[in-house]
C-alpha cells in the first residue's frame, strides 16, 4: 500500500463522502438495508486495515488462507456428495436365500445396518426361519457376524472399497 494512496484513502473527506455517495447510490437502485450495513462494515474494515500496522503480505496471507479453507471445504462437500458405488450393493443370495440390507453412513465410513432374509418364492421377509405368506420353512440360520463377513466379501470382490470401514459389532 503506497503511502500516498493510504493518505488519500484515509482523508476524512474521502472516507465520509465516498461512503455517503456509495450508500446513496445503492439506496437509489433499491438495495436492501442489510447491504448498507455490509458496505459500512467493509468500509470500517478497510479503514482498520489502513490504520493498523498490518503489512500487505499479512493481509495477502489472510486472504490466501481464507481461499485455501474455502477450497478445502468445497472439496470436502464434493467428496461427501460422491456416494461410494458399493452402497448400491444391498442384496445378494447366500445359500439360495436372498438377503437385503442397508448401510449407515458414519464419519469414519459405513456400517452395515439391518440385514433381512427374504422368501425366494414370494419375496416376503422371512421371520423366525419361516415365510409368513408361503408358510415354507427356510434354513436362514446365518448369524449377523456370518452375514457381515459374506457382505464384506461381496464388497471386496465387486467394488473398490475406498471409504468402507465396517464398524465391528
Ligand atoms: Zn414366501
Topology overview:
Blueprint (H helix, E strand, L loop, with lengths): L2 H8 L1 H17 L4 H19 L4 H26 L9 E4 L2 E9 L4 E8 L26 H15 L11
Antiparallel strand pairs: 1-2, 2-3
Helix pairs in contact: 2-3
The protein binds zinc ion.
The site of zinc ion (ZN) has 7 residues, from loops.
Word description of this protein:
With 169 residues, this protein is an alpha+beta fold. The chain folds into two domains: 3-81, no CATH class; 85-158, no CATH class. It is 50% helix and 12% strand. It contains five helices and three strands, in the order ααααβββα. It has helices at residues 3-10, 12-28, 33-51, 56-81, 144-158, and strands at residues 91-94, 97-105, 110-117. A three-stranded antiparallel β-sheet has the order 1-2-3, with helices on one face. β2 (97-105) and β3 (110-117) form a beta hairpin. α2 packs antiparallel against α3 (33-51). The radius of gyration is 31 Å and the shape is elongated. The chain starts with a helix and ends in an 11-residue tail after the last helix. The model has no long low-confidence stretch (mean pLDDT 81). The structure holds zinc ion. Residues 119, 121-122, 124, 131, 133-134 line the site of zinc ion.
- Low-pLDDT sequence parts: none
How many domains would you count in the coordinates? 2
Helix content: 40-55%
Count of DSSP helices? 5
Share of residues in strands = 5-15%
N-to-C CA distance = 61 Å
Largest sheet: 3 strands, antiparallel
The whole-number mean of residue pLDDT values reads 81
**Which strand order spans the largest sheet, edge to edge or round the barrel?**
1-2-3
From the alpha carbons, calculate the radius of gyration and give it in angstroms: 31 Å
Query: How many individual β-strands?
Result: 3
- Class computed from helices, strands and strand pairing: alpha+beta
- Shape descriptor reads elongated
Q: Which ligands does the model contain, each kind named once? A: zinc ion
Order of helices and strands: HHHHEEEH
Amino acid at each position: 500500500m503506497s503511502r500516498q494512496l493510504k493518505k488519500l484513502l484515509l482523508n476524512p473527506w474521502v472516507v465520509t463522502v465516498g461512503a455517503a455517495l456509495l450508500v446513496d447510490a445503492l439506496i437509489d437502485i433499491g438495495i436492501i438495508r442489510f447491504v448498507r450495513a455490509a458496505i459500512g462494515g467493509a468500509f470500517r474494515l478497510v479503514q482498520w486495515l489502513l490504520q493498523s500496522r498490518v503489512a500487505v503480505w499479512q493481509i495477502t496471507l489472510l486472504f490466501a488462507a481464507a481461499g485455501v479453507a474455502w477450497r478445502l471445504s468445497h472439496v470436502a462437500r464434493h467428496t461427501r456428495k460422491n456416494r461410494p458405488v458399493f452402497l448400491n450393493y444391498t442384496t445378494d443370495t447366500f445359500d439360495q436365500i436372498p438377503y437385503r440390507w442397508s448401510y449407515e453412513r458414519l464419519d469414519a465410513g459405513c456400517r452395515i445396518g439391518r440385514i433381512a432374509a427374504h422368501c425366494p418364492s414370494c419375496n416376503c421377509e422371512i421371520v423366525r426361519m419361516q415365510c409368513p405368506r408361503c408358510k415354507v420353512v427356510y434354513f436362514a440360520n446365518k448369524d449377523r457376524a456370518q452375514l457381515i463377513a459374506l457382505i464384506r466379501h461381496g464388497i471386496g470382490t465387486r467394488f473398490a472399497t475406498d471409504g468402507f470401514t465396517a464398524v465391528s459389532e
